[in-house]
Amino acid sequence: MLFTSYGFLGFLAVLFLLYYIIPRKCQWGLLLGAGYLFYFLAGAEYVPYLLVTTVTIWFAAYRIEDNADRQAAYLKEHRAELSKEEKKAYKDRQKKVRLGWILGGILLNIGILAVLKYTNFAIANINGLLGAFGQTGRLSFLTLALPLGISFYTFQAVGYLIDVYRGTVRAQRNPFRFALFVSFFPQLVQGPISRFGDLAESLYGEHRFDGKTVSFGLQRILWGYFKKMVIADRMLVGVNAIIGDTDAYHGAYVLVGMFFYALELYADFTGGIDITIGIAQTLGITLQENFQRPFFSKSLKEYWRRWHISMGTWFRDYIFYPISVCKFMQKFNKFSRRHFGEKVGKRLPVYLSSFVVWFATGIWHGASWNFIAWGLGNWAVLMVSETLEPLYARFHQRFGAGGRGYAAFEVARTFLLVSMLRTFDCYRSVPVTFRMFGSLFTARNWNILWDGSLLCLGLTALDYGILAVGTFVLVSVSLIQRKGSVRERIAAKPYPLRFALWYGLFLAVLLAGAYGIGYDASQFIYNQF
Amino acid sequence: MEELMEILNNLHPDVDFETEERLVDDKILDSFDIVSLIAEINETFDIAITAKDILPENFNSAKALYALIQKLEEEA
């Protein structure tokens, strides 16, 4: 049962009715039941994985907090009789116990994710190496089912465990309530990766029916479907045609595919998140925003602060910071400053931590060298930009770079860069991607942009018209959004205008949504991550 | 406090750390700045700022950062 199926809409309608009829203190229980039903319908064989993560993380967090509480109570009780050294020794012993629980919880759950997601990738690489060394033997691939949304719910649960360990949130003692945090169905399959501290109050709270909140939620859902079905699924047809036949579609087609894919991914993922946040809103639950108009960014660094925000902050808080400030890195910092000088030396540890983060980001997106190349490509650009920042500052000062024209140039440059890097996700291998980039300079087939060849990609002139209008609407809404909530502005308009706008959007999804043969409305790109 | 102000001013000479109270919230300090800052502070004050201390409320102002340093010095 997927977001774009009729079954899902029926499921939502029934849930919505029940949610506002039953006693409010039972609402969270209903959501838990709905989450597990949703997951069961997605694949009954996946449910045990969800349960294992829920139970192990809940128990480990419970034991960590229990230990921390007992430590505090013991130290308070024996404050007078213990020496400073004795207190320190006791604290160190207890810390080791907590460390055991957190490492156990993380290793088990990331281990499950790693085995299911990366075993066959590892086998493929080992086979490749065997072949390279002239060996004829090959390892067989395993049949492993990847549970829906495992990357998202594992990260969300592990984030919670780390927060409890750090003492930034109190553990949820009720295992069923915790199970809801891991299985809240709108965000189960593609995020956002919520933090327990941000979501708990809203998730477990009692919610009265509020007309404005519900209608805003429904409007957000509709907007999400517009992005997904009118724009993303239509562009997907063109993207699939271009990347599916590299012999026929090279040169200028690569550029077309690159921009198509960038827009498709944006419309697909932000549309999916709009639906997710909208569903939660109709239930009175506030999820964090995952995007802040990323294509208006003036640099790649800024883009990554505005795209898939919950994933970026997860990697920052739970991987980048711990690695950057660990004892080894502090020693490496001193070493590199001593040997490479103050300026270069202090950058090296940051580059190293970032490398780990971007490698992890790449492989988190998919078990293939394409994603690793994409992640490390981002890393390389970010590090070069960081290193050259003083040079940019001098350039800007000297040539007075500023103003709207230059800002527009920076936005266009960032969009081009992001789109180029994303191309690594598309083609079947990294060498093919490079070959395709190379063909941009050798094929000399720029005439395909205007001679009607683009009409052979499975998209008609009407499709291109719809895509042009859809993209125009998308950009316009983003521009208006800079000044505040678009829905609030629309809500302030006279009724006939409001009705026309929302009914028009509804009709657009109904009539211009991509349905039928050739279109794949069943899957969101980020579901597979 | 003077040593801390020197570290901060070396990192971002253009920022008024005496008055600024939203260094993280307003994205004046990014994650790279924070990591560089921690390395310098750990060395200068002989303390160990860990990942769990990296919270906006500890890095939003020079005053808050100094309070964190003092707390960690006491605990050491």
What is this structure's SSE topology?
The complex is a heterodimer of chains A (529) and B (76).
Chain A: H1 6-21, H2 27-42, H3 47-77, H4 84-132, H5 150-166, H6 175-183, H7 185-188, H8 196-204, H9 211-244, H10 252-282, H11 300-306, H12 309-324, H13 327-345, H14 347-365, H15 369-399, H16 403-426, H17 430-442, H18 461-481, H19 486-491, H20 495-512
Helix pairs in contact in A: 1-2, 2-6, 3-4, 3-5, 3-6, 4-5, 9-10, 9-18, 9-20, 10-16, 10-17, 12-14, 13-14, 14-15, 15-16
Chain B: H1 2-11, H2 31-45, H3 56-59, H4 62-75
Helix pairs in contact in B: 1-2
Key words describing this protein structure:
heterodimer; A: 529 residues; mainly alpha; 0% strand; B: 76 residues; Non-ribosomal Peptide Synthetase Peptidyl Carrier Protein, Chain A; 4 helices
Low-confidence stretches of chain B: none
Assembly type of the chains comes to: heterodimer
How big a fraction of the residues of chain B is strand? under 5%
Return the string of H and E elements of chain A. HHHHHHHHHHHHHHHHHHHH
Find the count of extended strands of chain B (DSSP E, 2+ residues): 0
Helical stretch tally of chain B: 4
> How much helical structure, as a percent, in the residues of chain A?
over 70%
> Which structural class best describes the helix and strand composition of chain B?
mainly alpha
Give a verbal description of the structure.
The complex is a heterodimer of chains A (529) and B (76). By secondary structure, chain A is mainly α. In chain A, 74% of the residues lie in helices and 0% in strands. Chain A has helices at 6-21, 27-42, 47-77, 84-132, 150-166, 175-183, 185-188, 196-204, 211-244, 252-282, 300-306, 309-324, 327-345, 347-365, 369-399, 403-426, 430-442, 461-481, 486-491, 495-512. The longest helix of chain A has 49 residues, at 84-132. The radius of gyration of chain A is 26 Å and the shape is globular. Chain A starts with 5 loop residues before the first helix and ends in a 17-residue tail after the last helix. The mean pLDDT of chain A is 90. Chain B has 4 helices and no strands. Chain B has 76 residues and is mainly α. Chain B has a single domain, classed as Non-ribosomal Peptide Synthetase Peptidyl Carrier Protein, Chain A. Chain B has helices at residues 2-11, 31-45, 56-59, 62-75. Chain B is 57% helix and 0% strand. Chains A and B meet through helix 12, helix 13 and helix 14 of A and helix 2 of B.
